[in-house]
Amino acid sequence: MDVLNRLQSHPLFAGLAPEALAEAARAGTAVTFGPGDSCLRGSDAGEVFGVLISGKLEVSQAGEDGGREVLGEISPGECFGEMSLLTGNPSGADVTAVMESEAIVFPEEAIGPILAGDIGAVRFLTRLMQSRLSPRGSRAAAPRPAQLHYSLGDSSAMRVLSLSCRRDALRFSYYDTSSEQARADGRVNGLGGEAASISCHGPKGASQGAV
């Protein structure tokens, strides 16, 4: 499978700079799941993020009667693991292959910083999570790639803090899904050193100073 070609045609990755897209392609691995194989465990916290290429996945969780409660299905072009990727918390739902399925799978620590640096990717994932948490429909059903430009409607706004951490620097953005723009963003340089500094741009303008 040509991972780079698959990613550049997907809405989540389409807006990435060429260097970031190439880095994402290097981080991704093409995986084939057999029927019944586990793709993601609900107890895992931010370990795996994937994009389904072919086949079908089922999302489920333990029911009150001890059985499995099916929450929805994931079809080709849709993502899984976005909730843990964004929050760092377990999703609480298991993702299992219904039939032989192909996916591009990424370690969270590799793909997280790449996507966090692109406002379009963060917006895509935030709205995807909002859609799946909405009580108006299935918590697990994702919008198809061809139907990305939808309104949040009467869904309550969510606030998301996006962090991209490097060895000696940290980039952050604070989003409100009721708006198309970040409410605040900035960067901390020189982490771990005596000359660490922070620069930030928010509603009141730009500011900078020592940490």
From TrEMBL:
Residues covered by the Cyclic nucleotide-binding domain: 12-115
Transmembrane annotation, as ranges: none
InterPro entries xref list: cNMP-bd_dom, cNMP-bd_dom_sf, RmlC-like_jellyroll
One of the Pfam families matching this protein, by short name: cNMP_binding
Annotated protein name in UniProt: Cyclic nucleotide-binding domain-containing protein
Protein source organism: marine sediment metagenome
